[in-house]
């Protein structure tokens, strides 16, 4: 196992894959979070009946395998609409929607955790809805939502391993390409797994720490 | 733009084959869930035991399962194990990968559930003359499973969604694998995968609604 045919060029190839994983994750998490906050606030504001269509769409994003969502949207853009978009764009769109579906749920939970009396107090002090949202709800809801949001972001990073179906060479795909050439599956997979673990583990622990620290007051 | 003609008949013709695939998908998810729960209970028991080695094993399992992609775990179960000279069929590799993942996540859920059960109950059991194993089995375990019923339902849905990853290790009898094969045959990519998506949606909905009914029946008190 220790005398490997892995060269420095291969390592750069792997690093590029890792960079692609991080890029897809970063774009999707940022867009997905913004969309998720908008969807979450809308769902909370207009009530369950009027929000039913939105809830349905977000529910679909959560109950269909990501692999199928990617293939389906790729086929839709490529064959039905006839746009030749690069795989990276499709991957980011699908992952952003996927993130926003989960994020909307987290945001809604966060807003609901703010006591109604606190908000009414803010409004009766003469704050507008916007002020109430920004200065009362945002800080209080963040405490509830941030730990789960960290979990979500890490989940998206792990799920970004699936974007290989739309021809994006991220870390796991580049590992697989190297496996095909070098025939050292165990060694290469261990490198790949270690990368995910090193990024995910500390952040997951940090999320757990925040949850523990913020829950008891 | 938009000069695409949908040919749903072409795809719907294969619906029976896809439904057979859906059965395989459910079968894998169910088996992996049953073994996963059993392993997760074992891991939880390891964590509760004073033995440092058992604790380390459980901890490593949970952290690896939770901090690496499911696809990586399935690769590991297929190509990783294969490098030791053990060649598993895609079905078994997929099952091992998903079960490993399930057990890790469920063990963490169980730990959360354990926090809700007061320590005093174990002590009460022990002072009534029960052994450590007895008090875990007949006092802690039933409550733990009850508290973590909802997370278990979620994990079941995840298991269904995860079976679609089997195609990467050559699985072609589950719903995604069948769809992929039919796609190679007919090139109706959008139609076939849209039907697969609807089937997946219906399965997950059936599971969540079914679980809610079971919960209402089981946890009446």
Q: Briefly, what is this?
A:
The complex is a heterodimer of chains A (217) and B (221). By secondary structure, chain A is an all-alpha fold.
Keywords:
heterodimer; A: 217 residues; mainly alpha; MetI-like fold; 8 helices; 83% helix; B: 221 residues; 10 helices
Walk me through the topology.
The complex is a heterodimer of chains A (217) and B (221).
Chain A: H1 8-50, H2 52-63, H3 66-81, H4 87-113, H5 116-124, H6 129-159, H7 171-182, H8 185-215
Helix pairs in contact in A: 1-2, 1-4, 1-7, 2-4, 3-4, 4-6, 5-6, 6-8, 7-8
Chain B: H1 8-12, H2 15-48, H3 52-67, H4 70-82, H5 90-115, H6 119-127, H7 132-147, H8 149-162, H9 175-186, H10 189-218
Describe the structure.
The complex is a heterodimer of chains A (217) and B (221). Chain A has helices at 8-50, 52-63, 66-81, 87-113, 116-124, 129-159, 171-182, 185-215. With 217 residues, chain A is an all-alpha fold. Chain A has one domain (8-215): MetI-like fold (Orthogonal Bundle). In chain A, helix 1 (8-50) runs antiparallel to helix 7 and helix 3 packs across helix 4. In chain A, 40% of the residues are buried. With 221 residues, chain B is mainly α. Helix content of chain B is 79%, strand content 0%. Chain B has a single domain (11-218), classed as MetI-like fold (Orthogonal Bundle). Chain B has helices at 8-12, 15-48, 52-67, 70-82, 90-115, 119-127, 132-147, 149-162, 175-186, 189-218. Chain B is built from ten helices and no strands. Classes of the chains: A mainly alpha (217), B mainly alpha (221).
């Amino acid at each position: 196992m220790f005398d490997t045919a892995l060269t420095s060029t291969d390592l750069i190839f792997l690093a590029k894959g890792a960079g692609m994983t991080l890029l897809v994750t970063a774009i999707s998490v940022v867009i997905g979070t913004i969309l998720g906050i908008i969807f979450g606030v809308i769902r909370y504001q207009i009530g369950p009946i009027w929000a039913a269509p939105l809830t349905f769409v977000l529910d679909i994003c959560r109950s269909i395998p990501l692999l199928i969502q990617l293939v389906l949207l790729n086929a839709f853009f490529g064959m039905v609409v006839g746009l030749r978009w690069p795989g990276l764009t499709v991957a980011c769109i699908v992952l952003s929607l996927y993130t926003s579906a989960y994020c909307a749920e987290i945001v809604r939970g966060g807003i609901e955790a703010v006591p109604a009396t606190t908000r009414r107090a803010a409004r009766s002090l003469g704050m507008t809805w916007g002020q109430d949202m920004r200065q009362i709800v945002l800080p209080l809801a963040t405490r509830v939502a941030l730990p789960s949001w960290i979990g979500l972001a890490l989940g998206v990073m792990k799920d970004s391993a699936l974007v290989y179906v739309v021809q994006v060479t991220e870390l796991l795909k580049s590992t697989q390409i190297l496996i095909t050439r070098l025939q050292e599956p165990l060694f290469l997979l261990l490198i790949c797994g270690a990368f995910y673990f090193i990024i995910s583990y500390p952040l997951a622990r940090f999320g757990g720490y925040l949850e523990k620290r913020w829950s008891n007051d | 733009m938009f000069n695409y003609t949908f040919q749903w008949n072409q795809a719907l013709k294969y619906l029976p084959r896809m439904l057979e695939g859906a059965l395989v998908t459910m079968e894998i998810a169910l088996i992996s869930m049953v073994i996963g729960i059993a392993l997760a209970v074992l891991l939880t028991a390891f964590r509760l035991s004073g033995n440092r080695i058992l604790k380390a094993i459980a901890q490593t399992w949970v952290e690896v399962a939770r901090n690496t992609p499911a696809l990586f775990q399935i690769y590991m179960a297929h190509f990783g194990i294969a490098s030791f000279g053990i060649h598993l069929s895609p079905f078994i590799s997929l099952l091992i990968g998903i079960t490993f993942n399930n057990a890790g996540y469920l063990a963490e859920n169980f730990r959360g559930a354990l926090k809700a059960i007061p320590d005093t109950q174990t002590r009460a059991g022990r002072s009534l003359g029960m052994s450590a194993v007895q008090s875990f089995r007949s006092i802690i375990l039933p409550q733990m499973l009850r508290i973590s019923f909802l997370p278990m339902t979620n994990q079941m849905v995840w298991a269904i969604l995860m079976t679609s990853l089997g195609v990467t290790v050559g699985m072609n009898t589950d719903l995604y694998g069948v769809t992929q094969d039919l796609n190679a045959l007919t090139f109706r990519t959008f139609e076939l995968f849209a039907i697969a998506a609807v089937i997946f949606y219906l399965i997950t909905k059936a599971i969540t609604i079914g679980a809610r009914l079971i919960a209402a029946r089981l946890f009446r008190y």
